[in-house]
Amino acid sequence: MTNQRILTPGSMSRRRVLTAAGTAGLLLPFRGLGGVAWAAATPATYKKWVLVKPCTDNVVTPAHFRMVEEPMPQIKDGQTLIQVKLINVHASTRNRMGPKGSTKVGDTDKTNYACAQVLQSRDRTFKEGDIIACQAGWQTHQVISSEDESIGYGKANELVKELNGTKSHWNYVFRPVMVRQHTPDVLMDVFGTSGTTAYFGMRECGPIMPSDKIAVAGTTGSVGAMAAQIAKAKGAYVVGFGGGPERAKWVTDTLGIDKALDYRAKNLDEQLKAAFPDGIDVYSDGVGGPLTESIAKLMKPNSRFFSYGSSASVYDDTPEGDARSTGRQFGMTDAVDKIIRERNIKLEAWIVHVHYQDRLECEDNLSQLIATKKLKPINTVVDGIENVPKGIISQYETNVYGKLQLRFAA
Ligand SMILES: NC(=O)c1ccc[n+]([C@@H]2O[C@H](COP(=O)([O-])OP(=O)(O)OC[C@H]3O[C@@H](n4cnc5c(N)ncnc54)[C@H](OP(=O)(O)O)[C@@H]3O)[C@@H](O)[C@H]2O)c1
Prior knowledge:
- The chain is of the alpha/beta class.
- It has helices spanning 93-96, 158-164, 176-181, 184-189, 193-204, 222-233, 245-255, 268-275, 289-296, 311-314, 326-330, 334-342, 359-371, 388-397; strands spanning 15-17, 27-32, 35-40, 45-51, 65-71, 80-88, 112-121, 131-136, 141-144, 172-173, 213-216, 237-242, 259-262, 280-285, 299-307, 346-348, 379-383, 403-407.
């Protein structure tokens, strides 16, 4: 494990900007009879980063990327031209850039969860000026359609299609109230897959009670930071984790939970026993590996286990096994599996889209937690299309807190 994270924590505001490259907005708002309308000053060209060569041995360098400038595409019936405001960087980006990954040489990574604004539309669902969620490449502009299916994680179910007016769980128009209340970075952090995974995980392990003793792994990361705050808002006793004493201190200082442990500490098992003398009721796990094995030993019979990811292997530069196997995806080992069966632990392990028919419920509840100051967005923003390679590399080399995002337009 050589994931070197060397940036220091930001100020009280968790929304830090690593670099400011000053991206000019391309839309000019004006008020007409029908409310806010948008005069689109669509540029003649757009910028895109493409993969130059597969990323081998899990090492991403600037040499893997090349920026190209291409003529702005013309839309046809059923299509929409969007300006990409911001994309989330996912921990698995470098796997996708690998020899067996979905990002092909000469192409961009099309799977990123993004916030965008509609510039031109000949599509039934998207209107000019809409702020939308979608999947986008490392690029400033893109053509999409409500007919596009989700890239990755299977097809959207009928309820989600009806709710979104699209064929993808990830493509939908944000309600105006959401756009008024939250900036694009918050829309894609708290209301993107990080916050929604945390929300549905806690809901499915619920009801979370003040008597519950909860361990939340990956608490300096994007999903864990949300899960820990949601559990705390329910009044539970919550213990988080960070890679090193400074990151553990950041967890308690920033997230306001009860305790945080350095998961790399030699005496971690002792510290865990002291933190949970009567055992653990709920474990939110996005990391797997040795930490999960230690925590599982302390889980009570009939307790609840929410397993959503495997950061321990995602961030391991030389992980074992097939990255696409279920065991690797959820970080499960045979030892943990045995404990789950022997203690009749309720296991929740899924990809978040399975709950996306309840997206509005999630948006409303998390908005309320933000409004009542019980939930802080935790994200790190890198500005400027020029900084895509730098931003992606920083996911693996720097002390990112929460969701790492690349912003191309305000
Ligand atoms: N099921 C779903 O729908 C779903 C949704 C979102 C994400 N995921 C998956 O969930 C996982 C986490 O996602 P994320 O976006 O929260 O990741 P993230 O923002 O990159 O955070 C990773 C977290 O894991 C911790 N970590 C790294 N190596 C560790 C180790 N060896 N032992 C213990 N903790 C370790 C990091 O702590 P330090 O940085 O302090 O070391 C950090 O807190 C990924 O596998 C992702 O693919 C699944």
